[in-house]
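Practice problem: predict the structure.
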Amino acid sequence: MPVVHLLDYVAGNVRSLANAIEKLGYSIEWITKPADIEKAPTLILPGVGHFGHCLTQFTEGGYLEPIRKHIEAGKPFLGICVGLQALFEGSEECPNVAGLSLIPERLIRFDDRNKSVPHIGWNSAKVARTGHTNKRSFYGLQDGSKYYYVHSYAAPYRSGVLEAAGWTVATAKYGDEHFVGAIGRRNVLATQFHPEKSGAAGLRLLKAFLEGHEWGSLLHTMQAEPDQGLTRRVIACLDVRTNDHGDLVVTKGDQYDVREKAGTAATGLVRNLGKPVDMARKYYEQGADEITFLNITSFRNCPLADLPMLEVLRRTAESVFVPLTIGGGIRATTDSDGSEVSALDVATMYFKSGADKVSIGSDAVVAALDFYTNGKRLSGQTAIELISAAYGNQAVVVSVDPKRVYVRSASDTAHTSIQTTNHGPAGERFCWYQCTVRGGRESADMDVQQLVQAVEAMGAGEILLNCIDKDGSNTGFDIELVRE
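Answer:
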């Protein structure tokens, strides 16, 4: 079996990349010291994190020069995310830290005046079609495919500049900014997106790189869309808990009640829709862009290292190559042996098992209440702050469980309210969205806007917006909530 050498220099989910490479028929050898690079025929440099931190680790660990020599020797090299950024001269993210300078350009931060930063989601990687590239695919890239990006800094694209130096460039657009999505020359390929999280399109690129197929045929099965940037995503959100027999199952609630209703053979039992790994694989094969597991069972007496959801993630990551999010129990805790474990340590275990993001629910509401009580001052000690500082904003999702509170007029509440077309039980024409905790069983004196503004300040990168009123109703999304 051919061997690929992988350098894991930052904390994060590199297990998914290893799984993708192994699925393609290759074995992994991990680079553990600079001398290992010299004997590596093929080197892959992944990474999620801060440019300065990563490049400083390269330098202090003695890796920078061996990487440079590997590239200069003409050996195949693939850089992913920060691995791409390392090829450049430097970045605004840390101006005093130099990159490899293989590309004499600098990365800049996306303009956040008219869009969210970081740039998270599925976007294009389109190669300029001129000359010999007109009807050919660069390392399997297809104009109609979408790839998964997570970053705040990017290399701006200026037509013809990099190409004049011999580089082939695939570009993407975010807002009105065009940037480098992938770039290659001779033995070097680098992607700003994550191929291991880009489904079949990402596996196609990895396969082409590992087999040395720089140029191939364009596929004609997909029509290229206008270059409009991020595409909408379909995320399969799976509620997972133990059933009445102690087995982990995917379940579904009716306003968060997951037990079968009266009048059925299974009255009172936890609704069982299937096994988590099987369901995740099913949705992935049907085209889901992301899988989210929300663990609604508390394993209070289970050692953290043996948590059932860790095994669910490990097994899912072996066959599902899109982003995986895990929620439930991401908090500081006491292990079964009495040792104290921080929220960051809990998150780290999930990341190492295959998660790309962690979702925080009730604890985010508690943290937001403290945030306002303390005059909107950050403590630096909340789970959101600790995890986002270590892994980046893109790694933290806040799951919001609101429910409607109806009032006769906006002046009847201090909370942000809306005029609704779905009137209340007594004909009320206004409502506000109250945050809840403990699976919707308890309410907090906080509205949705207050919560999302607080957690954004703490470092959350995404909001998973639920709605108790709509859960299990088969009436679609609460569009008024989304608009608010």
